[in-house]
Amino acid sequence: MKRWLMTLCAVLVLAAAPRPAYAVGPVIDWDPAFFWMPGATFNNMPAGGFMQAVGTVSVFGSPLDFLNATMPATEYTFYINGLNSLGTTSFGAPGSMIFTTFFTGGTIDVYADPTPDAVFAPNPPNLLVPSSFIDVPPAILSGTFTSTIVTTNDFTAFKTGNIEGSIQWTGGTLINYFTNGTGGTCPGLLTGGATWNTAPGVGIPGYLFRHDGKIDLQCPVPAQKSSWGRVKQLYR
Amino acid sequence: MRSPVTTLLLAACAVLSLAPAARAQSLLFDYVGFDYESPNPDPNTFGEPGSGYVGLGTVPFLFAPLVSNTALNEYTFVIQGLSPTSVLPVGSFNIINYSSGTVTIYEDAKSGGTPGTFTPNPPNGDVPGTFTDGTVILVGSLTNFQLVINTTNGVGSFEAVFNATGGSQLSNFPLNQRTGWTFSGTTGEALNIPEGYAHQIDGQTFLDAAVATHKMTWGRLKAGYK
User: What is the ipTM of this complex?
Assistant: First the structure.
């Protein structure tokens, strides 16, 4: 009886605590985010320049799936700032040319705003961008980029490429949900398609890229040393 | 006496002969999932001759003229029927062109339906089966499908011309508003990619605005061809 109660209590404690984060789907998905970088073009992001982005979260996945991004009362937004270009490198001949631009540094902050007002106003920065995406601190998540790369080209009919970056989470009111089960925090992987298509309804004047992306938690598969005796104990 | 067929043909010519103007595009649906190859004659290579591209996953957001209820239904997508026709290496990247294929969107009730499940090592008993059950609400052809991918880490993107051709909601699309395009990012670096899948994919499909039409007399139309 006592053993049964102890087991029940243990299950309840485990269920109530923030779980180590392991999921197949993205933890944050957005549709869309928009990047801008003064003086840059899709094939030339000069070294030393800084890229920024704002976006609205459309879906939260595990372990943040208790958040409802489509509930009108709360708007979830994010702001990426301080991505420092190392310059653009090209490969291939004109007509089949690929451009890669690495960035160092940069931060990301995710906000929950009970007064929805975010708007992708043209030609940022301006009175609404990024301010309408960073109101109502504190951030629910904060992180720094450990690497970021933008891949573009000169041949895709619809002007499509990729933006990807790695995130080290550093803070925010919900960072405890990103624990990896061994006292650390799972890194994030920001990834997704980017387009520099300026067609009305796709691009917005003053922004360099539209990004359809997400963040995945890069939790290593947990492993721990054990003895055969302990393993056998699990099956008794 | 002009036959109805002739009338329709002339009307179609009138519509097609109009110069396209810059028109706003609209987001039709957003999708996220994984891709793999089937058949996959060389598991160590992506886009090899004889392989087939398959992408599948969920469609969390659908927009007009599609009608959806994401509270009651799960929407899934399957991209298939694509075979590589050429591969051009550029640095560490491959530019892979594919034959025409399709993208299909399914609507499956959350209550009593089968959730899409990324069971490892597809194809298998769950994949693509749990993504293809339910009602086919939209079928679209994909042409000029092109994948640009870094062969060292799977980071890249694909795009294609989209044309709505079938499904239970095809009639929602006006005849002059069935074309568009799709694009997606890809990555092989995510640690949550199930075994047997190649990349995560996360993309959007846009619909072109309706082709503009305007009234014209038969005399003016005929004059345009003299």
Answer: 0.84
The whole-angstrom separation of Cα B87 and Cα B47 is 7
Please give the Cα distance from A2 to A211 (Å, whole number): 55
Cα-to-chain-centroid distance, residue A63:
14
Q: Give the model confidence (pLDDT) of A223-232 as tens digits.
A: 444 555 554 5
Tell me what percent of chain B is helix, strand and coil, each rounded to the nearest 5.
Answer: 10, 45, 45
Tell me phi and psi for residue B220, to 5 degrees. Answer: -65, -40
Q: Which of B26, B90, B191 is nearest residue A220 as measured by Cβ atoms?
A: B191
- Structure tokens belonging to residue B161: 């011309």
List the one residue out of B138, B122, B146, B155 whose CA is nearest residue B54: B122
User: Which among A153, A160, A200 has CB closest to B183?
Assistant: A160
pLDDT at position A176 over 80: yes
Contact between chains at A29 and B60 (C-beta distance less than 8 A): yes
CA distance A146 to A188: 10
- The pair of structure tokens assigned to B205 is 């499909």
A162 and B187: CB-CB below 8 Å? Answer: yes
Smallest CA-to-CA distance from A145 within A163, A121, A124 is with A163
- The residue whose two tokens read 């694509």 is B82
